[in-house]
Design brief:
This protein is an alpha+beta fold and about 80 residues long. It contains 3 helices and 3 strands. A probable RNA chaperone. Forms a complex with KhpB which binds to cellular RNA and controls its expression. Plays a role in peptidoglycan (PG) homeostasis and cell length regulation.
Amino acid sequence: MKQLIEAIVKPLVDYPDKVQIEKEESVNRIVYKLSVHPEDMGKVIGKQGRVAKAIRTIVYSAAGSHQKKKTYVDILD
């Protein structure tokens, strides 16, 4: 899942080397925390959050078939 998020986000940003994804796993859920360079934040979120929503939709659908746990994607400031 981490590789999928990187494959989606890195082409969108100006600083692909600053893309970091951390995984936190608990009993019933997995949270992927995405952080990017401050100048790239707007590109990852998009107008009215459309890009962020699209990223989450793709990850949720991919995770639904792979994992039995609820999966979340958080974009950190």
